[in-house]
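Figure 2 data, in text form.
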Amino acid sequence: SFANVSAFSTEDGLVLVDTGSLPLARTIHGLLRGWTDERLNTAVYSHGHIDHVFGVPVFEEEATAEGWAPPRVIAHEALPHRFDRYILTNGWNTVVNQRQFQIPNLRWPTEYRYPDETYRDHHTLEVGGETFELHHAKGETDDHTWTWVPARKVLCCGDLFIWASPNAGNPQKVQRFPREWAAALRQMLTLDAELLLPGHGMPIVGADRVREALTDTADLLESLHDQALALMNQGAKLDDLIHTV
């Protein structure tokens, strides 16, 4: 699915953390239906990038056809502003993403499924006897949510971990937040999670391996931030940073 979709079965239906991209929404729905026929109760957007937020309408169609209650969507309060900006700058986003991903026929979406509920710092979600703790963080985006499921010791971190060097800076995109990103990873370390479900790539199983992944990524981000800041404060030029850090 390119961007991962994490599904939790509860006594009152499914909880999804992320929902996939527009081209793959029906594929993801079909895969989930091969596992369970439970209705979608709640979807949590980890952030507003378009590979994570386009699966809900397929479940809404199903809910209407089956006479089920419609699903709700929860996200950080900054996420609707991202969707507004994407609509306003549709042409620009088409051009820069065609360039970045080398997809000449890419067309940036103009319609989005906005969240029904938003939160600011943290939010506790109860569904079917399960607790899902939502936490805001700045990282690859300003609207990121990481989700902790304490009874299962499962951590869904969105794109705060992606099995690649963190996408903490991109000259054609809006500001990213490496320092706050590292701080969020350090906060996650206190949980002793036993299963990490990342925004991209394979799950990480085992508390030691989860700890290693979070620590290594935080160390890298802090090093890049501190080196770059030190050179900036010395008056170095951008080209010097690129070839020195």
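Caption note: The longest strand covers residues 130-137.
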